[in-house]
Design a protein that fits this description.
The chain contains 12 helices and 9 strands. With 381 residues, it is an alpha+beta fold. It folds into 3 domains: 108 residues, Butyryl-Coa Dehydrogenase, subunit A, domain 1 (Orthogonal Bundle), CATH 1.10.540.10; 112 residues, Butyryl-CoA Dehydrogenase, subunit A, domain 2 (Beta Barrel), CATH 2.40.110; 138 residues, Butyryl-CoA Dehydrogenase, subunit A, domain 3 (Up-down Bundle). It starts with 10 loop residues before the first helix and ends with a helix.
């Protein structure tokens, strides 16, 4: 396949991509299997990524960012997927950074954003609870005001970066008698926070190196100044307004994975022989690859369109939801078919295709499940 050059890419993006690629190949790729076995990347790699400018490339310079656009962020997701590295939760870091940038008070921005850009702060966003995921308004974690502090109590599960995180954006109820209106985002610095605990990373069927944890808050005292934006009851609306960006990040990594697994499978089927012929010479192989390449291109054009729309502030919720469900399903479907074309080797974890397959499954579940995406799209019809 011809190398893809997205319509939104400038010369600066091309140069940046070269740097990111070299950095990831040198620093991250040798750790890939180790992270998968261990269940998380070491904190020092966050600092290395920070030094390279990978963590907040699209944040303003005055807050420690790179001053670029969303395209710079996209490049890192694409390059990580190209190398089949799913252990690094920089997408969450970027999402939390944008919450703070958009809603934080000036004091909050200066307190947290520069450290997030250097990797000093590793962040999580903690919405999901053992009893509720899709139905966010039903969360039970509560923050009761007591003088200048909130008393935070509750438990969260499936939290990405949960093992490494030292700054956690906790979605909680500051007014449990209300639904959406009672939700606030409380920024919790958890190093040395009394009452906070977490379990070891959960064992998953894919994305095994990305730390996903349960978090427990037992009467943790959080200063009132840590409510994002300084005002209670805004959390649900703050979350909703950032959803297009979050969903597009999932779509971006999905299409990048599709392109990568396809490229590797094309190579494999040209080399591997059966009945004295390359696998590629069988009509079934050719047709499957032709179909997948076509669908990859269609998805890519759509995602590039969404990236451009986001860059000019025009990406709406339903289009982002379309991109999320469509690309994540294509990712799963493509990885599944590519694995089949690898035969028994595709089932072996030493072949990246096996990781592309197992990693792909969760993309249809988190970030709002694909059923929820369709629900949202249907509301706009
Ligand atoms: C690896 C991983 C990482 C994650 N990272 C994070 C994170 O960093 N932070 C965080 O807060 N959460 C995270 N999550 C949680 C994730 O967002 C939730 O799992 C997801 O939102 C679904 O919620 P649930 O698991 O409670 O499923 P449920 O809400 O119980 O849903 C179960 C099924 O019912 C369907 N369903 C639910 N409601 C409807 C409806 N109205 N119409 C039709 N179908 C419906 C769902 O689509 C799903 O198929 C992560 C999950 C995983 C697996």
């Amino acid at each position: 396949m011809n190398a893809h050059q997205s319509s939104w890419m400038t010369e600066d993006h091309v140069m940046y991509r070269d740097g990111v690629r070299k950095f990831l190949e040198t620093e991250f790729l040798p750790q890939r299997e180790h992270w998968v076995e261990q269940g998380y990347p070491e904190k020092e790699y966050w600092k290395k990524a920070g030094e390279m400018g990978l963590l907040c490339p699209d944040l303003p310079v005055e807050y420690g960012g790179g001053g670029g656009d969303f395209g710079f962020d996209v490049i890192t997701y694409e390059e990580l997927m190209r190398l089949c590295i799913s252990s690094f939760g920089n997408g969450i870091q970027s999402i939390v950074a944008h919450y703070i940038l958009r809603y934080g008070t000036e004091e909050q921005k200066l307190r947290w954003l520069p450290g997030m850009a250097t990797g000093e702060f590793i962040t999580s966003i903690a919405m999901t609870e053992p009893g509720t995921g899709s139905d966010l308004q039903s969360i039970k974690t509560s923050a009761a005001r007591d003088g200048d502090e909130y008393v935070l109590t509750g438990s969260k599960t499936f939290i990405t970066n949960g093992y490494n995180a030292n700054l956690i954006c906790v979605v909680c109820k500051t007014d449990p008698s209300e639904g959406a209106k009672g939700v606030s985002l409380l920024m919790c610095e958890v190093d040395d926070l009394n009452g906070f605990s977490r379990n070891k990373p959960l064992k998953k069927i894919g994305m095994k190196g990305q730390d996903t944890c349960e978090l427990f808050f037992d009467e943790c005292r959080i200063p009132v100044g840590n409510v994002l934006g300084g005002e209670e009851g805004q959390g649900f609306y703050q979350l909703m307004a950032q959803l297009p960006r979050e969903r597009l990040i999932i779509a971006v990594s999905a299409i990048a994975a599709v392109e990568a697994v396809l490229e590797q499978t094309i190579e494999y089927t040209k080399e591997r022989k059966a009945f004295n012929k390359p696998l590629m010479s069988f009509q079934n192989t050719k047709f499957k690859l032709a179909e997948m390449a076509t669908e990859a291109k269609i998805s890519r054009v759509f995602v590039d369109h969404c990236i451009e729309q986001l860059m000019v502030g025009n990406l709406d919720n339903e289009t982002a939801s379309m991109a999320k469900w469509w690309c994540s399903e294509k990712q799963f479907d493509t990885a599944h078919q590519c694995l089949q074309l690898h035969g028994g080797y595709g089932y072996m974890m030493e072949y990246p295709v096996a990781h592309y397959f197992t990693d792909s499954r969760v993309q249809m579940i988190y970030g709002g499940s694909n059923e929820i995406m369709k629900e949202l799209i249907s509301r706009s019809l």
